[in-house]
Design goal:
Length: about 250
């Protein structure tokens, strides 16, 4: 399993980085991504990654910085780099309606045109597990949005094999920690160095929570500028049993 951090910033592109999203090789049947914000296509191009290779995209929630790049991917697949392979999109309830709606908002009736590829939709709720592209995907509630909207944490794993967990945007709760526990690697949001951070998690909270979690490698993403500037401090303060990686656009893990 290999990860490429296509983008590592928060919604505001703090420190000039791209919106948080991750490309995953050698886990599913073909490469997949988690989240696809407005800068995702640019990030793929900078990383030398071809979106036609993607088998699927898993969305943690339906905020613009996490799925707002899909209209650009849609027209890229129609006109710039024509796609023929199916594309599978997984996300919380309302994903299909939201994605088609944002494509229509960007490009009008292009969403109604016949595609040279199929789009397959899978919706998942907290507490559910589904089979997706040869993976088992488990979801838990990530407290971030006001009901009835849902934000998810996701764990993607081969049956009986390695797995990677993503917090999405969240506050830190027992359910979030349970979803991460035992993953081979966890990609976690870290929007600020210290509280308060609204409905997000800070490094101070992670520093207290990671010890004994059973996750050997933790990648911090969705970073505010203060977190990125404190990378040396974070590495010093990290628990001894965890390798903490401060995310940077374009790095491969």
């Amino acid at each position: 399993m290999r990860l490429t951090l296509v983008g590592t910033a928060d919604a505001f592109n703090a420190a000039g980085r791209g919106h948080s999203c991750t490309w995953i090789d050698e886990l599913a049947e073909a490469p997949v991504m988690v989240d696809f914000g407005p800068t995702a296509l640019m990030g793929l191009n900078r990383c030398g990654l071809d979106p036609r290779e993607l088998a699927g995209i898993a969305l943690t929630h339906l905020h613009g910085d996490h799925f707002g790049g899909l209209p650009l991917l849609w027209i890229d697949a129609l006109y710039a780099r024509p796609r023929t392979a199916p594309l599978s999109i997984l996300g919380p309830p309302g994903t299909r309606e939201a994605v088609l709606g944002i494509v229509r908002a960007f490009y009008g009736d292009v969403v109604d045109r016949e595609l040279p590829f199929t789009v397959e939709w899978t919706e998942i709720r907290p507490g559910q597990a589904v089979s997706w592209l040869g993976l088992e995907v488990r979801a838990w509630h990530a407290p971030h949005l006001e009901p009835p909207a849902l934000s998810l944490g996701l764990r993607l794993a081969r049956p009986g094999g390695p797995g990677v967990a993503f917090t999405g945007d969240t506050q830190l709760t027992a359910d979030v920690l349970a979803g991460l526990r035992g993953a081979d690697i966890a990609v976690v949001e870290c929007s600020a160095l210290e509280p308060p951070a609204g409905k997000h998690v800070t490094w101070v909270e992670w520093c207290d929570a990671l010890a004994g979690l059973g996750v050997p490698r933790v990648v911090l993403t969705h970073l505010g500028a203060d977190v990125r500037a404190a990378a040396d401090r974070i590495r010093r303060e990290a628990p001894d049993d965890v390798e903490v990686i401060v995310g940077e656009d374009g790095i491969r893990i």
